[in-house]
Amino acid sequence: MGETLALAAARGLHLAAALSAFGTLGFGALLAPAGDEIVRRRLTALARISVALAWLGALIWLPLQAASMAGAPDADGAFAALPTVLFDTGFGRALLLRLALLGVAALLAGPTRSRITWGLAGVLAGAACALQAKMGHAAAAEDLLLPAATILHILAAGLWLGGLLPLLLVLRDTPDMARRFSGLGLLCVLTLGVTALAQFWVLIGGIAGLIGTGYGRIALAKLALFLLLLGIAALNRFRLTPALSGTDPARAARRLRLSIAIETGIGLLVLLAAAGLATQPPAIHDQPDWPFALRPDPDALADPRLYRQTLLTLAAIGGAAVLVIAGLVRRRLLWAAVPLAALLCAAAPLPPLRLLVTPATPTSYYTAPEGVTAASIRLGAALFQTQCADCHGSDRRGQGPLVSGPARPPDLTTSLVWERAEGDLFWRIGHGIAAPDGRQTMPGFADRLDESGLWALIDYLRAGAPGSTGPGPSHH
């Protein structure tokens, strides 16, 4: 755990510094006054400090990453692996190129340089940040969706979050810069939202991965911080920035600077969370642990009436959100937007929630890690005869020699085993089944069989039952 935290912290320091360099150079090229040498000098200093910190972060990060990639048990092993990681892997070559691009960008920036030169420096720093697609999960992608989303996401984060410190530096002398920055910030926020959805689709896959995996929980923390950032940005845009033209502009400027400083600190936490995500396996490749007694029922929306109700409710909620956002952007409309949004939500045909959920187990969203094979079916058949046939019968019809009385095990030759999610079957075979009064009606086998044995039993039961695919949930 300590090594993982150190790796995430070093990666986060490097990433934050690289984005700060890009954001500062982009700010200088797009927003800063061309003839203000004092502002240019401040931005030059900040860009060069950021590049130096990016180099420092890389020097700390590289041996930690080498140790992780090589499985080195100690510092000697990590440093021995450095040349291989640095020169013979895509990660190492991308890191070297990033550091070179940042170094050239820092040299191009200067108090007397033209806006075009600053723009070139910003392009080089942006290219350096875009190399993130070669240094994380996107590098293993089989198509262009994840790399493209990663590049756009990192560039938008750099222009917005990396631009907060330069904004803070120049705000005292040029308060109007906050208005100019807000337009760029809005474009970046929209880009971050769209690309985050693409990354969610590819790396998390669904609500189970979001809630039930370490990767998903870090992503939730990042999302919460991002929403907090949006709230602060909205406060700056719609309250504090307009107050600069009010009766006490000096007080308004102080409050705006404090708010931007807080926004910068939270932005750093977002980047640290992003670095933490890079050290975790994507949720789509992990088995999610479901923490609730209920889960969404994938079969519920097969009912046309329930499907229409749910669709109309979601449309109403979406329309209400659009109205509220429009009211915040055009404050003159806010007095009408909020009541209309409330009326729209109240008129929505809310479907009965109990019909949209079904009982769940902690492993409801587990899937067989290896898939069904002939070997696993053979193993499952042998295990069934030794572990289960006494109750379920050797023919799986629930008439084993140990069964007496009217209460009999279910017939496993029917479609029953396909009507349960494979993760629920995994839990029930491993932990047993209890009656409503708490009496154990089927023992669990987790203390006798390992996970591969439990999955082999499921493969055997499904291979011998009518059906081709289960209706249960999947985190893929």
Describe the structure.
This protein is mainly α and 476 residues long. It has 3 domains: 2-285, Formate dehydrogenase/DMSO reductase fold, CATH 1.20.1630; 287-297 and 359-476, Cytochrome c-like domain (Cytochrome Bc1 Complex, Chain D, domain 2); 301-355. The chain is built from 17 helices and 4 strands. Strand 3 (433-434) and strand 4 form a beta hairpin. The longest helix has 34 residues, at 37-70. It is flat and about 95 Å long.
What descriptors fit this protein?
single chain, 476 residues, mainly alpha, Formate dehydrogenase/DMSO reductase fold, Cytochrome Bc1 Complex, Chain D, domain 2, two-stranded antiparallel ribbon, two-stranded antiparallel sheet, 17 helices, 4 strands, flat, disordered C terminus
Task: Summarize the helices and strands and which ones pair or pack.
Blueprint: H1 2-30, H2 37-70, H3 75-88, H4 90-108, H5 115-130, H6 145-160, H7 164-171, H8 177-204, H9 207-212, H10 214-240, H11 249-278, E1 294-296, H12 304-329, H13 334-347, E2 357-359, H14 374-387, H15 389-392, H16 422-431, E3 433-434, E4 440-442, H17 451-463
Antiparallel strand pairs: 1-2, 3-4
Helix pairs in contact: 1-2, 1-5, 1-6, 1-7, 1-11, 2-3, 2-4, 2-7, 3-4, 4-5, 6-8, 7-11, 8-10, 10-11, 12-13, 14-17
Low-confidence stretches: 469-476
Average pLDDT reading: 88
- Roughly how many Å is the radius of gyration? 28 Å
What count of domains describes the coordinates? 3
Note the run of SSEs as H and E. HHHHHHHHHHHEHHEHHHEEH
Q: Tell me, what is the CATH class of the largest domain?
A: Mainly Alpha
Report the strand count. Answer: 4
Shape: flat
